[in-house]
Amino acid sequence: MSLTVGNNVSGVNAALSAGDANGDNIADISDLLLLTAAYNTQQGVNPNYNAAADFTSDGFADISDLLLLIGNYNTLGDAFPISGGNLTLSALRAY
Ligand SMILES: [Ca+2]
Fold first, then answer.
1. Residue 36: domain span
2. Interval 40-74: pLDDT, tens
3. Inside any domain, residue 12
């Protein structure tokens, strides 16, 4: 299968690791640092809030996000061959 970023994609089941704040398809120390910088913040309230580190998408960067990151620590999401690299969370968010 080959996908091109920028086109609509359907019928693709891809598992991306919750805990991947920087979109490199692995939950690791880089993501932990991003969550740490945004920890205990709320969307629209705290300027340090980072939606990319809010893995539960509930508007809070908090313990629930940390638990997801810990649960997936040092794990890779699915990789698909696409032009320009692998399918990543940041590539999906660009759609
Ligand atoms: Ca959250």
1. 17-93
2. 999 999 999 999 999 999 999 999 999 999 999 98
3. no
